[in-house]
SDR family oxidoreductase
Amino acid sequence: MDKLKDKVIWVTGASSGIGKELAYQLSKRNCKLILSARRKEVLEKVKNQCSNPKDVKILPLDIIEFEKADSYVEIAIDLFGKVDIQINNAGVSQRSLIAETDFSVYKTIMDIDYLGTVALSKAILPHFMLNNAGHYVVVSSLMGKFSSPYRSGYCGAKHALHGFFDAMRMEHEKHGVRVTMVCPGFVNTNIAKSALTGDGTLQESNDSATQNGLSTTNFCNKMITAIKKEKFEVYIGGKEVKGVFIKRFFPKLLHKLVLKSQVR
Ligand SMILES: NC(=O)c1ccc[n+]([C@@H]2O[C@H](COP(=O)([O-])OP(=O)(O)OC[C@H]3O[C@@H](n4cnc5c(N)ncnc54)[C@H](O)[C@@H]3O)[C@@H](O)[C@H]2O)c1
C-alpha cells in the first residue's frame, strides 16, 4: 500500500512549477491536499486538474504575511482535521550581481524564501507535537549547499533553511517530527522568469540551464520517493548535483568549476 495514501499534505507554492506537479502526483496517490499560493483563481485551476478534486482544498496566502501564520495554520488544520506533511515549496530566485542589488531585494528574498517558511513551520509545530507526528518537507536548492554568481541573496536564504531545519530535526525528533530537505538542481519551471533583478523587478525571461533541466514530472517523482523514505536530505538534478560533494571535499575546485560554467 502507498505510504502516502490518505495523508493530509499541505503544499505551498502550488500554483506553478514543482508545487503544481506535486499536487497532480500526490492527488493520483489519493492524498488529501491543501494547496497554497497567492492567487486563488490559479489554485482553483490546479485543484480542478487534480485526479481527485474533492480531496483538494485551497488556502490562498502570501507567505510574507508572517503575522497571519497562526491563523493560516488553524484554517489548514480545520480543512481535513489535521495536517500530516507540510511541503514548504514557495520561493523566488534572483539574477543580479551583488554590486547591482538593492538591499531591499535581499530583504524580500529572505522574507519569502526563509522567514515565510520559518513562520508557517513554527506555527504548525504545536500541532505536530500534539499528534506526536509530523513531517516538514523543505524545498531548498543546490544553492542551499554551494553558491553561484547572480544569486547571492537566494543562496543566503536557501543556506539559512538548512541551519533552521537541521536544528528543528534535532529538537523535535523525540516528538515524532521528521524533516526532509530537498535540494533541486535545474528543473524546467518558470523560476528564472520570476527571479528578482537588482532593482526588485522580475527577470521575465527564462534561462537555458533551467529550461534544459529535469522535467517537473521526473523531479517530483524522485522527490516523492525521498518523502516516503523520510530522507534527511536529497539532491535531485543532473550533473550539477556533483557540486555538493566537490564543495565538501575540494572547495577551491568547485569555485573554479562554477565560474567556468558561467551559468547566469
Ligand atoms: N526550478 C528550479 O530549477 C529550482 C531549483 C532549485 C530550487 N528550486 C525551488 O523550488 C521551489 C519551487 O520553485 P519552481 O521552480 O516551481 O518555481 P515557480 O516560480 O514555478 O514556483 C514558485 C511558487 O512559489 C510561489 N510564491 C512565490 N512567492 C510567494 C509568496 N510571497 N507567497 C506565497 N507563494 C509564493 C509562486 O506563486 C509559485 O507557486 C522554490 O522554492 C525554488 O527556490 C527550484
Summary: The chain is about 45% helix and 15% strand.
